[in-house]
Every structure is written in structure tokens, then in C-alpha cells.
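Need Macrofage activating glycoprotein's 3D structure for a figure. Predict it.
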Amino acid sequence: MFPTVSLISVSVALASVVWAQTFPATPLASKSFPWPTGPYQADTENLVRGRQTGYNICNSTTQNQESLCQTSFINSIDDFCIWGPKDPNSVVGDTEGEAVAWCSKPGHGGRLIPEGTLKGLQWTRTPDYVQIVGHIDQTRINMAAGDFGGEMDPHGADLRGNPIGGLVYSNGWSGNNDSYTQVIEWHNFVGNNFFCFKACDPSKTNAAAFCEHTLDRIGCAYNAPNNAQEGVFEACQGENQDFPGVYTVNGVATTYRQPPESLGAITTMPYTARVPASSNCVTYSSAEIFAALASVSPDASVTPSSSSGTASSSQPTSSAPSSRAGTSSGTAAGAIETGNGADIVVMSGIVTTLGVVFSALFLS
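Structure prediction for Macrofage activating glycoprotein:
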């Protein structure tokens, strides 16, 4: 028997309420905030995941190790911020919506990355994006030891971003260190003592494709293939990578589809991502480019990482430019199975509620 018109109306109304309580009126990735005219908070709504934890107006008054700044920058090998938990010993999958900016130098109003956190970095500028990738001691930015981490991006399951309201800016395309462009498409993976942060040029047509945000379980090796090496700090020019998830076999391009979490852990992949060639690389010593971090210590309550790597300070301050051919094996740790727990909870709630609605519609 078909449901009555009144039951259909009630069910549709319920579905509308669920949608309105979950999704913002305007997705974060559709909001434009030219620098430096951004709001105190980019997200002002109180929905299923609550309110934005921090703030987006960050300056010298907010720069301290308790800062809740949620505006990040990605400018160069010595000037960037990555997203990390606000509280010690946190699991990224549980706290990604509340992540705050951890910065490599003063001036952005966020927390400073403690000395000894960064173990090796590769900065790459390509025709379509800039990218910083590196080995870290993740416990020094409040991540639990052994956490395989997850992905932060301006979308999220509820379109509010992870972190909620998180904004990213870069001077990488302006030619002026004081002129910042809002980065609309970006992704930042961190976990297993490794991170990658890519910002796609908003003036290019393929920004969303290069900064893909749906492959959150397969990490840096597939989303940001790179040549980062522990103990090496280098800035390079590079070729564009293939679009994340797209690979070619016998001349045929194929798109990888990430399986749902319900099918279990991802233990194998049908391809190995191509690492794009880099060139004109210049190496630096960590002591040279991160001198401002020398006095910054991690929270005393963190549980130290078991990683034995140490940040190198013996690299030449300016080596002759070098070239490196692309390879087929990424160095990104945590390449398979990172997790975004908050997104899973949100989507689970949406699916469950809408399931009840459609059951009422078609099974009554």
C-alpha cells in the first residue's frame, strides 16, 4: 500500500530538517575572504558537529602555544603551517574538526612547531600547485604516538571543512611576500610521523582535481607523491603529479575508487603512484631556516614518538641545484589506511536518519 500524502509530506519535511541541521547554508570551499579582510570565524553556524572551535583573525596577540588559530599559510620551505590537534596525545580522526595551525615561523598568529619536530622536508613548486612534504615527530604537535592520522581539507562530509572553518592562504603565486591569495582547494595529510600539505593555484582550471579530497584513506604516497627524505631539507621545482587516484595501464587511464570503510582496511592497491620529477633543488640546514624555533618546546605532557630520526643540521646551506628523476615508489609513510573518524560519524548519522525517512516512505 502506498503511503498517504501526509506521511510523504512529513517524511520530506524530516529529511529537510536533517539536511538543514547538518550542512551549512554556504559550503566552506565556496566562501571567499580576500586577505586581510577575513572574519573572526569563517563558520558561524551551530550544526551537528557544533561550532567552529577557533578563530580566523590571527596576529601577534594570538601567537602562543595555546593558540586556537585556524588560518594556515603555505608560502615556502621555511614558512608554512600544518594542521594539528590542540590537545596533547590526540588522535587526528577524532579531532580533525578542531585542528589548529602549527607554524614554522612567527608572524601568523598560530602555534609554533617545536624544535626537533621537523626531520626532513621537500618543498616543491609546480605549474599548478605548491607542496610541502616531510618527516616529523608528530607527538610534538600533540598527535598520539602511532596514530596513522587522516586528512584535513576544505570540504569534509558536511562541507564545513576539517578543521571546521579552516582557511588557507599563500603568497606562492603573487610574487609579493606581503600579498596573500586565499587557497580554495588544498589537502593536508598527517600521520605515522609524516605529513604532506598541497595548495592548488586557484587561478588554474584543475585545482580541484590536483587537490582531490575523497581519497582520505590512502595518504601522501597517492595524494601527494614525493621525494622527501629524512635528514634532507630541500626546495625544488617540479612537474605536476597525475591527478590523485588516476593511473595509466597499457595506455588506458583508470580512476581508482576508494572502497567504503565498511569493507575493512585497505591493505593493497591496484597501482603505485608515479612520483613526478623534481629539478633545480637547493638544500638547506634545518638550523639555518628554522632558527626561530630553537627556543620552542613541546607540551610537557606529550608521549614521545619512538622514531629515532633527528633533524639534520649538517646540510650545506646552499648546494648547487640538482635534478631528480621521477620514480614509481613514494616515500610517504602511512600510505594506506589513514582515517577520518569525525566524517564517518557525520555521514553515519545522516545515512541512519535518512534511512528512517525512506523506510517510512516506502515500507509503510
